[in-house]
Amino acid sequence: MIRKVIELKNTLELGESHSYLLIPTTSKQYSSAHLCNDYCEDSDTDADSGGEDPLSVSSQKELKEKLVAAVSRKEEPVPDEEASGSVLGKRQRGGRAAASNRSLRNLLFDGESEDVIPAGPVWIFFITLRDLFVARDNNEMTLPQLIEEFEHDESRLACLCPSYSLREFLCLGLNFLQQPPLVNSSDDKKKKSRRKTSNPKTPSDKGEAQKTPSAPEYQVGNPFISCIDEEKETYRWVGAVEDEIIREELDTLELLFYFALTRNQVSECKTQVNLVAVKQQKCASTIRRSTTEETNSFREQERERYLTPERPFRYQFRDYETVIAPMKRGLGNQSQKPRCHPLLQSDRPPHISLLCLVRDAAARLPGGIGTRLDVAILLCDSQFVVQGVSETKLNDVVSGALDRLQAQADPCVKFDNQQKLWIYLHRQRKEENFSIYKAPKKKGRR
């Protein structure tokens, strides 16, 4: 059809402008007429949009007005005072001259945040166990097989608590999932799990296909693992395998599991978890205070961390390691005086704030979990914090800082309202998962 139209035009010798095939000049690229010409009315990706609705007329009008306003700001003439300054060879540092160098994207979206790296999964141990079990026949594995699987994968070994051997850690996890504590789950999750187990469908994945017909029907609060041979140390996964059913419960159970292990709530033989009710400790401390040696070691690392605050840093604290996010503003202007704060030392470097110190304290929570008072205790280890502050004032300040950290675009902490615990969300991240802050270069005088 297109070929016939072209031949007909050639036969009739109809002239046609091909200017739309050419890239306009630079001056015209930023003109409102060029930018707004038939904007978003047609798209060559409509077929791939998956049924997405096109922009409404009001949205198109609003976007066009925004484009015109941005272009008019960019094309606004420079005042005579600034023009005379450039003639004399004096380069203006701010004002319209600096703003004119900004890209059109910055003009349209002032203050737009950079791409944020997702926090990623915080809890992966129990989900890893599920994946290993369902990959085997009848969802069964022995303890030696589990140990071998973990030893061959460094990412799985990262789940291990430092004060436990791999065998002890796996035994504790398997026994914990055999008799899990009852945790609160949303009503939607409970109804979904009952509906899926009462009306089983044709298995759609390998895990479901390999489940034994005799496996007990799963309900929220029931065991996930069963020991079928104590002598051979053989276990079977008897719970559901779908993420949408078990993920919420497994995440909460793993939180409690790590909380118990890092607070030494285990039996003497290190085979059973003796979990103390967490909600009873929400306003109390669940960790011990740092020794003098631990405090001095942390303060040396803290000095090193704030010498290059634009880079992520790895703290080594009490037999475990944790990564902290970089500061976005970097060192800043060191000639400025630090902002006054009743909890912070007045002679500290100006780029150190209460928010970054509370972030450091939350990152050093054992297992990445703790109460507000636990964060306050770890905050006092900092050399930039005033000692001898009352506990009430310290709690109030830490509470506000944690709420601010939780409200950030890439939050590093989250409050679990069910268990009344603060969770450090970046515990599984590595240094390469964070972007390094780059300070804008200052243009000197010519």
Tell me the number of strands: 8
What is the topology, as strand order, of the major beta sheet? 1-3-2
- The helix/strand class is mainly alpha
Beta strand % = 5-15%
Uncertain regions: pLDDT < 50 for 5+ in a row?
A: 17-24, 26-57, 81-116, 187-216
Q: What series of H and E elements makes up the topology?
A: HHHHHHHHEHHHHHEEHHEEHEHHEE
| Biggest sheet layout | 3 strands, antiparallel
Instruction: Give the rounded overall mean pLDDT.
Output: 74
Distance between the termini: 61 Å
Radius of gyration: 30 Å
Helical amount among residues, as a percent range?
25-40%
Total of helices: 18
The general outline is flat
Please describe the structure with a list of short key phrases separated by commas or semicolons.
446 residues, mainly alpha, three-stranded antiparallel sheet
What does this structure look like?
The N and C termini lie far apart (61 Å). The strands form 3 sheets. The chain has a 3-stranded antiparallel sheet. It has a 3-stranded antiparallel sheet with strand order 6-8-7. Strands 4-5 form a two-stranded antiparallel ribbon. By secondary structure, the chain is mainly alpha-helical. Helices cover 39% and strands 7% of the residues. β7 (413-416) and β8 (421-424) form a beta hairpin.
Topology:
Elements (H helix, E strand, L loop, with lengths): L1 H11 L13 H4 L2 H4 L21 H18 L5 H8 L7 H5 L4 H5 L16 H10 L5 E3 H9 L2 H4 L8 H13 L8 H12 L7 H4 L15 E5 L4 E4 L5 H20 L29 H14 L7 E5 L2 E5 L29 H10 L5 E2 L1 H8 L11 H16 L6 E4 L4 E4 L22
Antiparallel strand pairs: 1-3, 2-3, 4-5, 6-8, 7-8
